[in-house]
Hints:
Elements: H1 12-23, H2 27-36, H3 43-55, H4 58-64, H5 80-86, H6 90-97, H7 103-106, H8 110-117, H9 121-130, H10 141-153, H11 163-179, H12 186-205
Amino acid sequence: MLLNDPRVDPTAEDSIVLRNMVTANSAEAILVLLADGRADPAALDNWAIRQAAFLGLRNVVRALLTDSRVDPLVGGDSSALILAIRKDFTDSAKIILQSPSVLPRAKNYGLIVEAFAENRLYAAQLLLDQYNFEVVAELDPVTAIVKFEECRNNINIRTSLSQDVLAVVDKVAQMFISSGLNLDDRSASFQYLCCEWSEVVEELQS
């Protein structure tokens, strides 16, 4: 076996051997390299899993996630998770979302809240789609809270909104007031809205 030869260095050129195996869609070879332990699957800002997610190579994604050095959330809007969702590779996205390193952060919409807190609204909306949030008055939790904040900061904006949108904004305001939330804590407010969104939809669609 080549890996037993002392002249072989799987770490060379930022673990290019492993990265080549990603491009070749060889999950088995990647598992062998990971078992050897020397090649770094997180080299170049987790290039390996980001590339696998971008190409929709679900078996490669699954193989890479067996190594604790791999972080599919590194890279913001260019992370493996967001790339998989953006390219509509739902299998790869689900594998990432259900991986042990991601699952705790995904609980209670944590990943969506993280993206929202960092003002990565596009990523937040992509993540919303993975949870099948319903839309009401063409609004989802991201766009609804943005409208709510706009109205809160400038009441005159209300005159430019449709009655349907205003109904959502007012419902959101009512929920926030009833909850006693600190509205300056955008992350907590948004997380609360995500958790209670079904109530907004149910009331406004009835």
